[in-house]
Amino acid sequence: MKNSGEAWPPEGTEPVAAHPDAPGPGTKLGVHFSECFGCGDEQDGGLHMESTVGDGLTVKSQFTVTEAHQGAPGLAHGGLLACAFDEALGSVAGNLLRLPAVTGRLETDFRRPVPVGSTLFITATLDGMDGRKIYVSAEGRLDAEDGPVAVRARALFVTVEFDHFTTHGDPNAWKKMRDSNRVNP
Ligand SMILES: CCCCC/C=C\C/C=C\C/C=C\C/C=C\CCCC(=O)SCCNC(=O)CCNC(=O)[C@H](O)C(C)(C)COP(=O)(O)OP(=O)(O)OC[C@H]1O[C@@H](n2cnc3c(N)ncnc32)[C@H](O)[C@@H]1OP(=O)(O)O
């Protein structure tokens, strides 16, 4: 993946269409795995992000910063903001393409402080694919859809076989996610 100053998406990236069975604009995506740190509802310390499919190849997510997310006093920790963007970017890749994929590389540009109590309105866009490589980008605006941009991010996701998760992860947790019918791999 190219560095921040270089062309995005990189040369060789092809435009993509959403999968025919992908959820349409306006669909609330809910929780893909109850224990996910980004969106899970059984993860007390998590980010509890909520996402909805947007127009075009986008997903819109919201992340409200609490005192549990601080780095500097009163301000969101940059690593947690990166986590929020990983979730939003993974959501646009996974839900619109309906392909299992993992983050290979994630870049974040922090442009404004994000205070405790504020909500980031994140729009993530599916920029294209090159073989197994999925390119996605996002921006997060402070406290409103048209608020000032606080964070920009872009990422490379790489498609994997489903056994990536059972081989390297926890097969029982995978079964729990599958049985919840929240995703349908
Ligand atoms: C997580 C959800 C699972 C559920 C899936 C089901 C349904 C989906 C529906 C909804 C999902 C909704 C939301 C998801 C929300 C959040 C997502 C969170 C995602 C994560 O939290 S995920 C954890 C962190 N993530 C990892 O744990 C990855 C560890 N890693 C590896 O597992 C390997 O590293 C892997 C597999 C990445 C590649 O390994 P590999 O051996 O398969 O393939 P290879 O190395 O050949 O790479 C192939 C091509 O990608 C290029 N490439 C690779 N990495 C690159 C890099 N960093 N920079 C530049 N280029 C790179 C190569 O250069 C080559 O390019 P080329 O084809 O041109 O040669």
From TrEMBL:
UniProt subcellular location: Cell projection, Ruffle membrane; Cytoplasm; Membrane
Keywords in alphabetical order: Apoptosis, Cell membrane, Cell projection, Cytoplasm, Fatty acid metabolism, Hydrolase, Lipid metabolism, Membrane, Transit peptide
Catalytic reaction(s) noted: (5Z,8Z,11Z,14Z)-eicosatetraenoyl-CoA + H2O = (5Z,8Z,11Z,14Z)-eicosatetraenoate + CoA + H(+); dodecanoyl-CoA + H2O = dodecanoate + CoA + H(+); tetradecanoyl-CoA + H2O = tetradecanoate + CoA + H(+); hexadecanoyl-CoA + H2O = hexadecanoate + CoA + H(+)
Major location (coarse): membrane
Top enzyme category: hydrolase
Gene3D superfamilies: Hotdog Thioesterase
Domain Thioesterase: 74-141
Pfam families cross-referenced by the UniProt entry: 4HBT (PF03061)
Segment forming the signal sequence: none
Membrane topology label: Peripheral membrane protein
Region (Disordered), start-end ranges: 1-25
UniProt keyword annotation of Ligase present: no
This enzyme's EC code(s): 3.1.2.2
Family stated for the protein in its record: Belongs to the THEM4/THEM5 thioesterase family.
Protein name: Acyl-coenzyme A thioesterase THEM4
